[in-house]
Design a protein that fits this description.
The complex is a heterodimer.
Chain A: H1 2-16, H2 18-42, H3 47-58, H4 61-71, H5 75-93, H6 95-124, E1 135-142, E2 145-147, E3 150-151, H7 152-160, E4 165-178, E5 184-191, H8 195-199, E6 205-206, E7 223-226, H9 228-233, E8 245-248, E9 251-258, E10 274-277, H10 281-285, E11 298-306, H11 312-327, H12 337-346, E12 350-355, H13 362-399, H14 401-409, H15 414-452, H16 467-493, H17 497-502, H18 515-548, E13 557-561, H19 571-586, E14 591-597, E15 608-609, E16 622-627, H20 631-635, E17 639-642, E18 656-660, H21 661-667, E19 677-678, E20 685-691, E21 706-710, E22 723-728, H22 732-746, E23 754-757, H23 758-765, H24 767-801, H25 803-811, H26 816-849, H27 861-887, H28 891-897
Parallel strand pairs in A: 5-10, 7-9, 16-21, 18-20
Antiparallel strand pairs in A: 1-2, 1-11, 1-12, 3-11, 4-5, 4-11, 6-9, 7-10, 8-9, 13-22, 13-23, 14-22, 15-16, 17-20, 18-21, 19-20
Helix pairs in contact in A: 1-2, 2-3, 2-4, 5-15, 6-13, 6-15, 6-16, 6-24, 13-16, 13-18, 13-24, 15-16, 15-24, 18-24, 18-26, 18-27, 19-22, 24-27, 25-28, 26-27
Chain B: H1 2-5, E1 10-11, E2 20-21, H2 22-32, E3 38-39, H3 40-50, H4 59-71, E4 75-81, E5 87-93, H5 95-120
Antiparallel strand pairs in B: 1-2, 3-5, 4-5
Classes of the chains: A alpha+beta, B alpha+beta.
């Protein structure tokens, strides 16, 4: 070892001081020549003959000099440099091949890096707070179902009793209306007292909120903390910001602190701008009150920080005692505790803590599985790209066998040749990866937009590349290089020399029976078929979701959400205002029908009610919605029996309800529901109509039983905020400004209405499915493309080498069709074997997809057949092109070139 | 052993000066340096003299061999003053070189004895 080190040191010295080294060689050799001349002189050689005699004895000094220099070179390193130069020249000489190869790798690496960026952003990255690994997200289990949202009493219990945690905090996102009338909504969050203490991020200015702020009527008034971005963009870095007033939902807050840039709260996908104490909720949510709602309102995400040294298991063990103390509580509270406790005890309620180092976001639950599935597809794509490159390199190495054999014959070692071929593929991999990495952020960003639907600008995903993504990409690159470089290089140099040199291109045609290249091509085809079938299953499932339909016609439905909580009217006068607004909107140009409802489908919020029947039975949970007359007509929900609501159905005429078909069937089996009553006593409702089923919350599940109540009979809410639902045919912009004008004139005091389409909500609710479908189609198309390139490329290379053979065949009378079939035939077996293997593999792999599929069997014969046909068509085109080109060979020129 | 005997890369200028097998040159250099540091010319001279003027080491073989042996750690090289007070590069054995000389001598003794037996056989 030390000898090697010594040699390395001497070589390094020669490399670092090349001139001194050259001088020393020269001096050493000159000294020798000097002594030699002295001896020759002593032996009596005349001065005239001295020079030639010295040269004769000594040989060529400059060659010797060269020899000594070579000894001291880092031969391997310098060979690599030389090989890289050579490889660059070779690759530049065949731009078609080089470009194809680079694009193949770029596609594979770019796509996988982009997907990985998304996975990183959603699933892996930690919150930028100190010791994020100590954070936990709380949920609770009832009969093994996990639920995330907490109600205030359960949260407060946990907040006051948490032996294993240093802090426990709750939060609830809200949109605050800032400033006076006609003002803007700002993405904000209500936070409990220990929120900032748990996140351990010191404020940029002022102070953060403490437990003392989170009490009703706290002495310091109503404090608010703002983000650095809000301070910078809205307040223009006002230096006197601390202590200044902030009017939020008409409640005066005073700003006590500014959080530093990069602080994002606990949800990495939301950029919260204003943080206010949880105790202020009744003020800003008035007339609602989630805190007073007690066990009826489940609205808080709850997190905590473990004490140092406490493991997640220990923390969960300590939660068992908290659970016990909750369940043994008194059950005589007025806020629904009694009912809840009864249920909780029978359903084995318990608190649970999960790792929360990357914060809490509902997107994570939504996208974890689809992203993982897409990543699997993506890995298949990357593998395919590598296989394709390997077969391209195979074909290329075959055409270069003569060159390689010649180089072996003149003394190159096999190691050198393999090294040189590896360097070539390494160069390709680097170039391809670089191109892929450049493209990855763009792909990731467009995927993120696709994922989030671009509907809510406050939602945000940071998909920038970080070290994890880089490591993943580098790993993929090295793997790709090893796979694509090694096999063809070893294969190409592993044949006996003489057989290759002797072989004429004619007899080399027998190489096409090489097993490995055909195996590679078959594997590619199998893999491509798996990807195509996967994409087919996912897309047909998506199409079915849209086609089986939600039960209404979502096209051209526009939504106008208004907030009427901050204007003076209530009860009947407010209903009259709604009616006049609906009438005027319905009269606008392009509007076919207009109505009002309270809960937007697929918005994530639902309202459910149960009614106790006179018989003592309790109805199933009904998904309910407050609606105005003409609602069913506007939504195109069929009215199956009875009648629609009318404006004359007021409180004095008795409460009415309209049921969906499945609700009617569940409550009144085998009876005529219209005219019957549900509920009892003063809650009794007369059923006046039956309408079609609608999938309001999840299009993938069967429609739940539904009930519709009239906004004219809404006793629960004095100042309800509803949504206008408008079937509009025509441009949206003039409609929006017309609605704006109506609202400004009639109710000038409310924040600007929010315009939306129902289609956007529907798309958004299916965004995970849509993303999967689009990506799987993207991968499938790429896979087909790459496979076509592979089939075409290898066949074209092979055919090119057989040019003269084909020429001879044609000269001897072969027909063009025979030539076409001769060439075409070569890919048929490969494709057939690949397709069969692919079908088998797809059947197995599709099982993993089953949970994502809606109404589609994993063995859907149509999808399987169409996918196979598509693949066969692509393979045929890719194989026909070289065959047709071969048939165009002019026999004379072909034979002459040999 | 036959690998050495059959090696084609031989040195020597004419037929009667004798041909030197490659590995053998290294052994002779090691032997020349056994008594102390020498420069290249002196090594060639010493081998010429000690072989009764039979072996003549060609410079084109000597210097690559010296440098190779230096890189392999058998020799150390230092610049010093020659008898004529010119700067010359002196080579000297390292511990590794000494060990190598030992093993090469033993091997050579066995080899030459064996060849002698063969040649004397009737």
């Amino acid at each position: 070892m030390s000898q090697r080190l010594r040699g390395f040191r001497l070589r390094l010295a020669a490399l670092l001081h090349p001139r001194r080294q050259q001088r020393e060689y020269a001096e050493e050799l000159a000294f020798h020549q000097h002594l030699l001349r002295q001896r020759l002189q002593r032996e009596g050689i005349t001065p005239v003959d001295l020079d030639p005699a010295t040269r004769r004895t000594f040989g060529n000094p400059s060659r010797l000099h060269e020899q000594l220099s070579e000894l001291r070179q880092f031969s391997r390193f310098e060979n690599i440099l030389r090989d890289s130069g050579y490889a660059t020249r070779v690759l530049r000489k065949s731009p078609g091949f080089t470009l194809t190869a680079i694009l193949t790798i770029a596609l594979g690496i770019g796509a996988s890096t982009a997907i990985f960026s998304l996975i990183n952003a959603l699933l892996l990255r930690s919150l930028p707070v100190p010791d994020a690994h100590q954070l936990v997200v709380f949920d609770y289990h009832e009969d093994n179902d996990a639920h995330g949202g907490f109600c205030a009493p359960l949260f407060r219990h946990l907040e006051s009793d948490h032996p294993a945690f240093s802090d426990v905090f709750g939060a609830s996102g809200t949109q605050l209306q800032i400033g006076g009338g006609g003002s803007t909504l700002v993405n904000s969050v209500l936070v409990s007292g220990q929120y900032f203490r748990a996140l351990q991020t010191p404020p940029l200015l002022g102070r953060y909120l403490t437990p003392a702020d989170d009490r009703p009527g706290a002495p310091s008034g109503l404090p608010a903390v703002i983000s650095e971005r809000y301070w910078r963009e809205v307040l223009h870095r006002d230096p006197h910001v601390i202590g200044s007033k902030l009017l939020a939902n008409r409640i005066p807050f005073s700003i006590v602190g500014v959080m530093p840039e990069g602080f994002m709260g606990t949800d990495p996908t939301e950029h919260r701008q204003i943080f206010i104490p949880l105790a202020a909720e009744p003020l800003i949510d008035a007339p609602y009150n989630n805190i007073a709602g007690g066990y009826h309102s489940w609205w808080l995400t709850t997190m905590g920080r473990r004490k140092p040294g406490i493991t997640l298991e220990q923390a969960n063990a300590s939660l068992a005692s908290v659970t016990r103390s909750v369940l043994s509580g008194k059950d005589d509270d007025a806020d629904g505790a009694a009912d809840w406790l009864k249920d909780a005890r029978t359903q084995h309620f318990r608190y649970n803590a999960e790792s929360g180092s990357s914060g809490y976001t509902y997107l994570r639950q939504l996208y974890r599985q689809p992203l993982q599935a897409v990543f699997a597809l993506c890995c298949g794509m990357l593998l395919l790209a590598c296989l394709n490159l390997a077969s391209l390199l195979f074909a290329r190495a075959a055409t270069r066998q003569h060159e390689l054999a010649t180089r072996l014959a003149v003394g190159a070692s096999r190691r050198r040749l393999v090294q040189q071929l590896l360097i070539e593929s390494l160069l390709l991999a680097f170039a391809g990866s670089a191109a892929g990495l450049v493209a990855a952020p763009f792909i990731a960003r467009s995927l993120a937009v696709l994922l989030l639907g671009g509907r809510d600008p406050s939602i945000y995903l940071d998909t920038s590349i970080d070290w994890r993504v880089l490591a993943a990409a580098a790993g993929a690159c090295v793997l790709a290089t090893l796979i694509i470089g090694m096999v063809p290089a070893l294969h190409a140099t592993g044949r006996s020399l003489s057989s290759q040199l002797k072989a004429s291109p004619l007899s080399r045609a027998d190489l096409r029976t090489g097993l490995l290249p055909r195996l590679l091509l078959s594997t590619q085809i199998a893999l491509a078929l798996v990807l195509v079938i996967g994409a087919g299953l996912i897309s047909s499932s998506l199409v079915r979701m849209y086609r089986t339909g939600p039960g209404f016609d979502p096209h051209n439905i526009n939504l106008v959400s208004v907030r009427l909580t901050k204007q003076p009217l209530e009860d009947e006068p407010l209903v009259r205002l709604y009616r006049s607004l609906q009438d005027r909107i319905a009269a606008l140009p392009g509007v076919h029908a207009a109505s009002i409802f309270s809960t937007i489908p697929y918005s994530g919020s639902t309202m459910t009610n149960e009614y106790s029947m006179p018989s003592g039975r309790i109805t199933p949970q009904l998904y309910t919605n407050w609606i105005a007359p003409q609602y069913f007509q506007t939504m195109r929900i069929p009215l199956l029996a009875g009648r629609d609501f009318a404006w004359s159905d007021t409180l004095s005429t008795g409460s009415k309800i309209i049921l969906s078909r499945s609700a009617a069937a569940a409550i009144f089996p085998h009876q005529i529901a219209v005219g019957q009553h549900i509920g009892s006593g003063k809650d009794s409702l007369e059923v006046i109509g039956i309408v079609g089923d609608v999938k309001y919350s999840d299009i993938r599940k069967p429609a739940p039983p539904e009930g519709y109540l009239a906004i004219t009979q809404n006793e629960r809410d004095k100042k309800p905020s509803y949504v206008f639902v408008v079937r509009l045919e025509g441009p949206a912009a003039p409609f929006a400004s017309a609605v704006h004008a109506i609202l400004v004139r009639d109710v000038p005091d409310i924040p600007a209405p929010i315009f939306d389409t129902l289609g956007a909500y529907l798309d958004h609710s299916l965004s995970a499915q849509r993303m999967m479908a689009m990506l799987s189609v993207f991968f499938a198309v790429s896979a087909l493309l790459v496979t076509a390139i592979g089939l075409y490329g290898t066949l074209a290379y092979r055919t090119a080498r057989r040019t003269s053979e084909i020429g001879i065949r044609m000269a001897l009378g072969a027909q063009r069709t025979q030539v076409v079939s001769l060439v075409f035939r070569q890919n048929v077996a490969v494709t057939l074997i690949g397709a069969l293997a692919g079908l088998g593999a797809a059947m197995l792999a599709a099982r993993a997809l089953a949970s994502f599929l809606y109404g589609t069997s994993t063995h859907d014969p149509l999808v399987l057949a169409l996918s196979t046909l598509l693949l066969a068509a692509v393979a045929s085109v890719a194989s026909l092109l070289p065959a047709i080109r071969a048939a165009r060979i002019n026999p004379l020129t072909a034979i002459r070139t040999e | 052993m036959d690998a050495i005997l059959s090696h084609k890369s031989l040195m020597g200028r004419d037929d009667n000066s004798g041909e030197l097998i490659q590995g053998t040159l290294e052994m002779l250099v090691l032997k020349a340096l056994a008594r102390g540091p020498l420069h290249g010319y002196a090594i060639a001279e010493w081998i010429h003299q000690s072989s009764q003027q039979v072996l003549r080491v060609e410079e084109g073989a000597l210097y690559p061999a010296l440098h190779r042996m230096e890189l392999r750690g058998m020799l150390d090289a230092k610049w010093g003053a020659s008898e004529s007070n010119r700067r010359a590069r002196f080579y000297q054995l390292t511990a590794e070189g000494r060990k190598r000389l030992q093993s090469e001598s033993t091997r050579w003794a066995r080899l030459s004895a064996a060849v002698a037996f063969v040649m004397q056989a009737t």
